[in-house]
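ok trying this again, last paste got cut off
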Amino acid sequence: MQQEDEPREALDPAAERVRRKLVRFMGINLAILFAAVMAVVLAFVYKSVSPAGQPEQAILLPGDGPTGTLHVPQGARIVSQALDGTRVSLHLQLAGGREEIHVYDLRNGQLAARYAISR
């Protein structure tokens, strides 16, 4: 066992070359590992910041997009509405107290589905 104050013996040239190659190999592998970890961290940050799940859709402001008319039955009162992409659903209270849900396709303004509500 060597004491701390004793000088180390120099390695022979072949062993020194192997040691240098090993140090260089470790440095390269650590750099690659660091780059891979940073890529994963950046992916997590990107996913947490961007909206999840659905693809981005354009937001139409008044006057920006197509306009049209939705034909609602005469005397109907709109109780509520919901918009989903290119479809809108209207909860209507019709004459005589009946209620229906009408689903319209906004691309062409046509009635896509009609559902009667019974209680």
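PB: full thing came through this time. The beta strands are 77-84, 87-93, 99-105, 110-117.
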